[in-house]
Amino acid sequence: MAQAIARTTWWRSRRLRGLLFQGALIAGITLAVVGLVEHVLAEGGASGFGFLNNTAGFDIVQHLIPYSEQSTYGRVLLVGLLNTVLVAVLGIFFATILGFIIGIGQLSSNWLIARLCVAYVEVLRNLPLLLQIFFWYFAVLRTLPGPRNSLNPFDAVFINNRGVYLPRPEAAPEFIWVVAAFALGLLGTIWLRLQARDRRERTGEHSDIGLATFALLVLPALVASAITSFPLTFSVPVLDGFNFVGGVVVIPELVALVTALSAYTATYIAEAVRAGIAGVPSGQREAALALGLSRGQMLRLVVIPQAMRQIVPPLTSQYLNLTKNSSLAVAIAYPDLVSIFAGTTLNQSGHEIEVIAITMGVYLTLSLLTSGVMNLYNARIALTER
Amino acid sequence: MRIRVAALAVLAALVAQPAFAGTSPTLDKIKKNGYLRCGVSEGLPGFSNPDAKGNWTGLDVDFCKALAAAIFNDQQKVRYTPASAKVRFTALQSGEYDVLSRNTTWTMSRDVQLGLEFAGVIYYDGQGFMVPKKMNVKSAKQLNGANVCTQTGTTTELNLADYFRSNNLKYTVIAFEKDEEVVAAYDAGRCDALTTDQSGLYAERLQLKNPADHIILPEIISKEPLGPAVNQNDPQWADIVRWTLFALVNAEELGVTSKNVDQMLSSPNPEIRRLLGVEGAFGQSMGLTNDWAVRVIKQVGNYGEIFERNVGQGSPLKIQRGQNALWTKGGLQYAPPVR
Q1: CATH of the domain at B139
Q2: pLDDT, tens digit, for every residue of A341-373?
Q3: Which of B189, B222, B255 is the last residue of a domain?
Q4: Which residue of B144, B152, B165 is in closest CB contact with A339?
């Protein structure tokens, strides 16, 4: 064998060939990028990132930071990025909750619940996501009344086909004292919890701190509010002309997009959860029950922590998928990054290469961040070999 | 080997630039192909839209037919290529078609920066608003605080922002990527108004559940002169396209129609005689025959006939002539004289 290796001529050595191919690949990519940049520069005028300082001139329906027609394309990028992040965060939140419920439900010993959960997964997983987004959007729009006949489930909350209108909290300067009081209360609960844990570890006795925690969280803030004569007021939406003004509006595009994304991604998360739980050896369950844990405790303290090791890696890739799928927003007029930056801004400024490069960079960064956070979490819960 | 021959052919084509002005390489190529290549929209009723049998119809399509009639004496010798708003100019520049006849607004940047030549204005359009009748809105100035649906990535978004800002009105824009979703969302009550070019509004109104429940407001908030465009590098071809358009308008002004064009050949009116090639050699100087306008009018009709048939009273759109009436009737359609 050693002789065989010795006989291979130097240009056929695996190491050298590897280096050569990788070198060629890097050189090729570099050439392509340099060529692209030179081409862009040669076009003149419409090159570089200076256009980000130009006035955008168009309006955006939902912006989390101040924005107007006089704002710049750079601002558009920021508005779009925040809108994308908002959808991604909300979508991940609801998809995780729904996915865990459905996933555990699939393993339920109740025949009806188990079948319903399986049916949910099989139906929603096998329909194209874009179709589901359209379904939710037009289902929401068509069933809701116009602004004049708004639903009014609670005082100062209005629901119509223009969105959900909620009162907007408006804080007076004194509100800072209320926040401080609340923070103090929060610190108190943490201290209380630490004390309780300490006691349990020392004596094995369980202390009930539920009521005390609640009091600590509510009372200081309430007292501070009363002293500063209630600095938090609410601006209530009022029907004026065509639409409601004042308050906060949750636009139907956001509702439809988050609903569709979480309902769809939840099916994949449910499958990951089911597989993770099924992967925990049944001996663990039997041991937990033998120790006298209730079924709930068994699930919470024994099964789920072990199942998480199997669940987290596929969960991460579902989070990434959800973030990337949010770019379908453009179909229903939700102003995400792809819609207002890689769409409108690109069309109006004509800087295709720069805009697409920035957009790709943003999605890459978002995905790498998500995956980084999930990897950290995964490392924490991973089985530590001793 | 074959690749090398092809490469040589390309090189030769690059080297052999037109030797002298006066011949049109585009016209030569069209004659050699035996058909005109015409870039149209992906489907806009009244302008360029395939009918139930898959034949293209519309105002922009009829203009291509007029060109084919002028060149081949056969309006059927056209091949249509649908082009999206995004690729239409690139495809024209790279020679995918000979003329772009596709509800395209003539703007300075397109004319000057993109290396195109606009032949004229076949339809004076402008951005307008459609609202439900029951809103009781009579003017766009009453739209303060309204939700407005539109298509993203076009100039309409910018015109909208400019209009509301200059009139000190508040609004919320809901911008969709595709036209169908704009119409569906408006129909579902997501917005109080829908905005796009007025010609498009008439076409989109037909797609609503109850077209009669919606009105188009009188205000026009932008100038959108739509016209056919060609490549800048062939001035003679641009002349043919331009004067075919002018011939359609002049024919209407002089009262020459597809029905009476044969009798008009014996008209004593010198303007008619020059247009129809009875006097002068205007057709020949463009590389066509002198009776080019006769063939165009006989096969396709004059401007007024084309308008009424495709977008006017003879069509489902029922658009008034308005700005597109002849200048003699208070409109903007005006063609230089044949002389």
Answers
A1: 3.40.190.10
A2: 988 888 777 777 788 889 999 999 999 999 999
A3: B222
A4: B152
